[in-house]
Write a structure and sequence with these properties.
Blueprint lengths: L1 E2 L4 E7 L5 H4 L3 E9 L2 E9 L2 H19 L7 H8 L1 E3 L3 H16 L9 H12 L6 H6 L7 E4 L2 E4 L11 H15 L3 E6 L3 E4 L8 E4 L5 E4 L2 E6 L4 E2 L24 E6 L2 H11 L5 H8 L6 E6 L1
Parallel strand pairs: 2-4
Antiparallel strand pairs: 1-13, 2-8, 3-4, 5-7, 6-7, 8-9, 9-12, 10-11, 12-14, 14-15
Helix pairs in contact: 2-7, 4-8, 7-8
């Protein structure tokens, strides 16, 4: 599998709103680690940098234990393994609620039940071939096979979920909320999706250069960019990692990338992923109309 999309988590927070006397005692701290299969870094300029960074790191690790597909003890791995999960974490239910809303608004192009399809494609391409149409058709999938309430999540037989199209944004939202509780401003979080709480320390929004070329600014807003060929199964970069649950194969690369902004990074993440499988700009606009405040920032053909 070839990975071309950035895979890291970066948290940067400064104390632009503190009075000068307080800022004089700030301590800069940089800490690195792992989360959701990506490298993570935290940079803080704050008198209580070490304590706040520890809280941020603990929150990221807590969420990793919910959403990770790499940890054998995560809530998501246990759900996929057992086909059901009693007393699921609130965060898992919350993420699935967002996924369900985007699934409905996108006509089914966003569907976390593609995880078995993803495994089928990864294993087949590693073996030097593409999966046979009969094998694709036999993979259980479909959002209707997911039943959830506060007490239990149940999957239809043979199904499994991936939250790679929403969980990184969700982590950004939760970290932003934690830092806001600390009274910090000038927060910029990059989990592969971006979340700005407040503006840049120098004034105005945080400048962001989109992969497709345009520059925008973010303030109290989130941004996600998805690309059909951003991550590919094959070394030639032909078979993209975003799968269409309807066809069972990689989505056609109609767009080089899609960038969407919203008040929530989780929502922007899911919408940008779903948009990659939509056939035209009108379809993307219709999907976004279901979520007030969302915006298509760039559509690169």
């Amino acid at each position: 599998m070839t990975l071309t999309r950035r895979r890291f988590i970066a948290v940067s927070a400064v104390v632009a709103a503190l009075p000068a006397a307080a800022r004089a005692g700030t301590v800069q701290l940089v800490r690195t680690g792992q989360a959701l299969g990506a490298s993570a870094s935290i940079r803080l300029d704050h008198p209580r940098a070490a304590a706040i960074a520890a809280r941020v790191q603990a929150e990221i690790e807590r969420l990793d234990a919910v959403f990770s597909l790499y940890r054998p003890d995560s809530a998501l791995v246990r759900l996929n393994r057992d086909g059901g999960l009693e007393a699921p974490p609130f965060e898992l239910l919350d993420c699935l609620a967002t996924a369900g809303a985007v699934h409905g608004a996108s006509g089914g192009t966003f569907d976390p039940t593609v995880q078995p399809l993803w495994t089928l494609w990864a294993e087949a391409v590693t073996a030097g071939r593409e999966p046979a149409p009969a094998d694709i058709a036999a993979v259980p999938r479909g959002w209707e096979g997911v039943a959830l309430d506060a007490g239990r999540i149940t999957l239809a037989p043979g199904m499994a979920l991936t939250l790679n199209g929403v969980a990184q944004g969700y982590v950004a939202d939760r970290v932003a909320a934690l830092l806001a509780e600390e009274g910090l401003t000038g927060i910029f979080i990059d989990t592969g999706e971006m979340r700005a709480l407040g503006g840049a320390p120098a004034g105005g929004g945080w400048p962001v250069a989109l992969e497709s070329g345009p520059r925008i600014t973010l303030a109290d807003r989130a941004l996600a960019t998805s690309a059909p060929l951003g991550t590919t199964f094959d070394q030639t970069g032909r078979l993209g990692h975003i799968l269409d649950p309807r066809s069972g194969g990689p989505v056609p690369a109609r767009w080089r990338s899609v960038s969407i902004s919203a008040g929530s990074a989780a929502l922007a993440d899911a919408l940008s992923t779903a948009a990659c499988a939509l056939r035209d700009r009108a379809g993307i606009d219709a999907m976004l109309a279901r979520f007030p405040g969302t915006r298509l920032e760039a559509l690169a053909a």
